[in-house]
Amino acid sequence: MSAIEKGLMAFGFSGHTPLPMDNAWSLPGDVFPAYVEEMKRLQQKYKGRIQLYRGLEIDYIPDYSDNFDDLVHGVPLDYCIGSVHLVRKPGSEGPHNIWFIDGPREGYLKGIEEVFDGDPRAAVEAFYNQSSEMVSTQKPDIIGHMDKVKMNNKGELFDTQSLWYRDAVDRLLGHIKASGTIVELNTRGVYTGKTDEYFPSIPILEKCLHMDIPVMINTDAHHPSQVDTHFEEAVKLLKDIGFEKMKTPFFEVAL
């Protein structure tokens, strides 16, 4: 109802897909069928008042995550967001070699130390390489918060303006362009106070414009009150950069 009350014409559900490991954010496997049925019920209930879309944010972890196509066509879904929250150390086996980039900063730092032997560059490059692999092999409709690896950095462990970092971003953007994936401008980090810039950063958005990579705005709402938080601010930013339109998996909107 919050989306309708705020005047939204369309709204997409994107709960986190179940994962084969304990965590506090993804849908439990036994709850997932009910989530799917509730999305279908709401689509019918509010038909004619708002366009609702069935979606999932699917975590990509090599050798752990489900094939995106299987989920999209099996549910079925209207769209999917592909994201990387859990970075697997290249060539490793087992859940103890996975770095969680989200959550409390203490865990982020501990993961770099324990999984990547205290080497932040190796950790960050693994994040971008895993994201590139996800985009190339799974071809999600949207890539979620593509530079979220910076959130817990606080400008201390690595420099996002360094050549190696920009090269890693450019490689990912190349895969995004080739796959036709939409880049999400995610506002959540700013309005929750976890970061002072959106995901992705302005330089990355400028590269998206230059490369003709489509961008859409997502508030990544975890509560009904957040469904349009910082949406207008994000629209202004895109217009200031030079974007004339925003693209979703279903339609384009002039800015």
**CATH domain class name:** Alpha Beta
SS strand fraction: 15-25%
The CATH architecture? Alpha-Beta Barrel
How many helices in DSSP terms? 9
CATH homologous superfamily assignment: Metal-dependent hydrolases
Q: What kind of sheet is the major sheet?
A: 6 strands, parallel
Please provide a written account of the structure:
- The structure is a single chain.
- With 255 residues, the chain is an alpha/beta fold.
- The chain has a single domain, classed as TIM Barrel (Alpha-Beta Barrel), CATH 3.20.20.140.
- 38% of the residues lie in helices and 16% in strands.
- The protein has helices at 2-5, 32-45, 68-74, 105-115, 120-138, 163-179, 188-191, 202-211, 231-241; strands spanning 10-12, 15-16, 51-53, 55-59, 79-83, 86-88, 98-100, 142-143, 182-186, 215-218, 245-247, 252-254.
- The strands form four sheets. It has a six-stranded parallel beta sheet with strand order 2-4-5-8-9-10, covered by helices on one side. A two-stranded parallel ribbon has the order 1-3. Strands 6-7 form a two-stranded antiparallel sheet.
- Strand 11 and strand 12 (252-254) form a beta hairpin.
- The radius of gyration is 18 Å and the shape is globular.
